[in-house]
Amino acid sequence: MPTIATKHGSIFYNQSGEGPVMVFLHGGGRSSKYFQYELRHYTTFCTVVSFDLPGHGESLGIELPNEKYWELSAEIISEALAKMGIERFFIIGIRDGAIIGLMLANSLKDNVLGLFCDSFEGNEITPERALKIIKHRKRIKRFFLFSLFQQFTMGNDWEKSIQMDNNRLLWFARNRKQFFSFPVTTPSPIYFTCSVLDEEIPDIAQKMNNMKSIVPTARVIFFEGGKHPSFLSNNHEYRKMIQNFLSNQHV
User: What pLDDT does residue 1 have?
Assistant: First the structure.
């Protein structure tokens, strides 16, 4: 089981493929294993480094305080990449992974070739929205096939991970409310991507457009088809978009 020791604990990762380094960050309540079959396609033209975020999957042992979870996660990943000798990379992040990716791009600047933030809630989560997400998770948890899949992708302690994520989400919505209180400045190109038919995040198109106040230089890309997340439901278009991005970057 490949892990990197950091000052906050050991984080799990997978590395495969050759070419420009792509760092993949999943969302809350998931693990990198959830996306493993899609990520295999990227290994044909990228070196894919996918992490299990703290408190998820094989990184379940890293427990971070709710108030600094996203910042400390970015710090852990930054430290892990440095120890792996990876200096230049681009990022694809989904939901929480998108937020952590933005924090990495904001702090590492020129090290980040580009960032694709897919299917996330934007800068703000209200208590009402948090409660709806938690209620949805509790409802689908009762289905046997869902529980089986969660156990396969996240391990035997998947319910603990989900509960930790629920607690963190509710704390954030009631106390912090926003991920960023300042503009994100980075020379790297940043893209916000989503399906306009996303069934999990209401008003996602408006949320992506609102994020332009945090990242004025970002480009918003809407997929007319597919569902949540667009990284999977529009996978062929997403792969082509990444290949075009790399061609334009001459890497």
Answer: 67
Rounded Cα distance, 193 and 87, in Å:
25
pLDDT tens-digit readout, 44-74 = 999 999 999 999 999 999 999 999 999 999 9
Res 249: pLDDT? 83
pLDDT digit string (tens) for 122-178?
999 999 999 999 999 999 888 888 888 889 889 899 999 999 999 999 999 999 999
Residue spans per domain, the chain? 3-123+183-249
Instruction: Give 56's strand partners.
Output: none
Neighbours of 9 (CB within 10 A): 16
Residues 6+ apart with CB under 8 A from 159: 141, 150
Could you tell me which CATH number the domain at 3-123+183-249 has? 3.40.50.1820
